[in-house]
From TrEMBL:
Lineage: Bacteria, Bacillati, Actinomycetota, Actinomycetes, Kitasatosporales
InterPro entries attached to this UniProt entry: Aldolase_TIM, Radical_SAM_PqqE_MftC-like, rSAM, rSAM_sf
Source taxon at top rank: Bacteria
One term of GO molecular function: catalytic activity
Organism: Streptomyces roseirectus
All copies of domain Radical SAM core, residue ranges: 30-260
Keywords of the record: Iron, Iron-sulfur, Metal-binding, S-adenosyl-L-methionine
Record's protein name: Radical SAM protein
Classification via Gene3D superfamilies: Aldolase class I
Amino acid sequence: MTYDRLDLVAKLYQPSGWPRILEAASGSPTGAPLVVDLDPTTFCDLACPECISGRLLNQGRFTPDRLAALARELVDLSVRAVVLIGGGEPLAHRGTRGVLRILGEAGLAVGVVTNGTMIRQNLAELARYASWVRVSVDAGTAGTYGRFRPDRKGHSVFDKVIANMRLLAAEKTGALGYSFLVMSREEPDGTTVTNHHEVLRAAELAHDIGCDYFETKAMFDDDHHIVQVPRATLDSVDRQLAEAARLQSDRFHLVNSSTLTALRGHTGPVQPKAYHRCRVTELRTLVTPSGVYVCSYHRGNPLARIGDAVTDDLATIWRTSDRGIVDPSRDCRFHCARHRTNLELEHIGEGAGARPLTEDYDPFI
């Protein structure tokens, strides 16, 4: 049987996570999250003008010893999957290699979201232990990359990133993705620079590298609302993706994010929610050097902070915290990828859900 790994609702019905799914669906606190987003550091070696976490960078880090201890705590909590991500660049922390090793050898699934500049230094661990690595490239040429993803000296490191991705493609045991965020910016002189015209070129490059998928996404603003784009831009992206469809095979897929789907559906930047408690916060959480937060959409939000992983162990934080401090109807009016998951958890809690599956296939709910 083939399962859609983008179907976050269907992923709820996997047997190994089902007991905690039922706890969350009932509105009860769970004993531990199933998935944890972990920011090893707030440092990043790039200086992207559109970085949604720009105001949170360079504000702290875990020591290598504490980072390793966190990895062991995640194992002890029976977390099923961990995403190494960031405000910062996760591979910039010298302890990340150890985290990959600890989690991987314990059997946890590990995803990595990276800018790709430090893949070479972490190649052995990424190739062996990462279930997937998604590289944020957002361009198809060095020139466009330099406009949107410059390093701290204003230079383009596009060629370095692509070379690193080729190294990983040759060694990987998990999936490798090429991520393309559709962006535009008005310059001080009134001109607009954009990257949308390079979607096809980037997709062809991803295929040539040996990536498993190419993903296109829409931008968020600082409050996580989807940035609306002109219809002509969206049409251009769709034409290029239609042409890129010839590249698809069992080994290479084009992935459309829910954000682009929302733009096509003219849903606007606001996603209203009628419920007052996010049940997904009992199943996923975010751990960063600046605090533990109910979810990654609220990274850095003091009103959504539930603990301090620098000083306290995760089991204690989870046992003593209130994950209901965020009211989605009030605090989450942006587009949330797990809105439908929350609605499904309500159905499950009412006894109207589907039957659990007979096998696991993807723990990244």
